[in-house]
Specification:
Uracil-DNA Glycosylase, subunit E, binds iron/sulfur cluster, six-stranded mixed sheet, alpha/beta, about 325 residues
Length: about 325
């Protein structure tokens, strides 16, 4: 930027670049993930318009909306070689993160801890708490009578719908019931559940302040992972729960929950450390408490994940 020289077409490039940088920051805040590469001639035209004290009412050549975006995407005009502009590389896919850039720098077009593409509101208006509770109760009765998954229906003792506050700020979203949960009909009540309760309390919440639920509502035999068809069978239920609850945050506990909710094949390692989006809810991915019991060294990373949420929520 310091190489930019004043010219008749761009009498105040510093002011122009400040405006462009401000627009780029705004686009970043609202979740813009990718912007086209600036074309130098369009940038010059736009810069001249910005700098003019009385812009012409009818420009000789209208500047398109796309050109405006291109200018906003160019706060660093000196970084113009193909190697310095990852947005030009056709192989760069939306799920690639800033830390994957070969030059080790984060793209100015991405928020480092936010993957909010596809952000959209939950459909309809939120329900008052009594109605939410009633709708959740109705849904729970449907789940209890559900026979979609032939094998799980034969193995289950009780369905495990979920429990907690009907107007929660945070939903903890696990994989599926284990033995203790299958017997009790409650989520996360075994050893992993005790650890989850400690994690919740470490966040300064009470367990009854949050909502806890699973991807599938029936216990898979021998604690195997739910099959993809079983997850799809149960999708209607867990998505309906989230739509009723509309939490500010959903914490996905482990790979199965994260991949099911975010409809992705990425690993927990790739999904951790940033926010994703499920309608209005920010989605955070961390390790399953059962994994943390087997791998205590991962507890610090899980706490880092929760702290990311707490900082974002203004709670620390
Ligand atoms: S796991 Fe879900 S979809 Fe499958 S039988 Fe149980 S409640 Fe029904």
């Amino acid at each position: 930027m310091s190489d930019t020289k004043p010219s008749p077409e761009s009498p105040d490039p510093a002011a122009t670049l400040r405006q462009a940088a401000g627009l780029a920051e705004h686009l970043g805040r609202i979740g813009a993930q990718w912007l086209p590469v600036a074309q130098p001639d369009q940038v010059q035209k736009l810069a001249a318009q910005f700098a003019s004290p009385s812009p012409p009412e009818t420009p000789a050549e209208p500047v398109s909306k796309a050109a405006s975006s291109q200018a906003a995407a160019s706060p660093r005009p000196a970084a113009s070689s193909p190697e310095q502009r990852p947005e030009q590389r056709p192989e760069q896919r939306p799920e690639q993160r800033p830390e994957q850039r070969p030059d080790g720098k984060a793209s100015a077009h991405r928020l480092p801890e936010d993957d909010s593409s596809g952000r959209q509101p939950y459909p309809g208006d939120p329900l008052p708490e009594p109605q939410r509770a009633q709708r959740l109760s109705d849904l729970s009765e449907r789940v209890a009578a559900c026979t979609r998954c032939e094998q799980l229906v034969q193995c289950r003792t009780k369905t495990v719908f979920g429990e907690g506050h009907v107007n929660p700020r945070v939903v903890f979203f696990g994989e599926g019931p284990g033995r203790e949960e299958d017997l009790s009909g409650r989520p996360f009540v075994g050893r992993a559940g005790q650890l989850l309760t400690k994690m919740i309390e470490a966040c300064k919440f009470d367990r009854q302040d949050v909502y806890i639920m699973n991807t599938v509502k029936c216990r898979p035999p021998n604690n195997r992972n739910p099959e993809p068809t079983e997850i799809e069978n149960c999708r209607e239920y867990f998505e309906a729960q989230l739509e009723l609850l509309r939490p500010e945050y959903v914490v996905c506990l482990g790979l199965v929950a994260a991949q099911a909710l975010l409809r992705t094949k990425l690993s927990v390692g790739r999904l951790r450390g940033k926010f994703h989006q499920h309608f209005d809810s920010k989605v955070l991915v961390t390790y399953h408490p059962a994994y943390l019991l087997r791998t205590p060294a991962a507890k610090k990373a899980a706490w880092d994940d929760l702290q990311l949420m707490l900082r974002d929520a203004g709670l620390m």
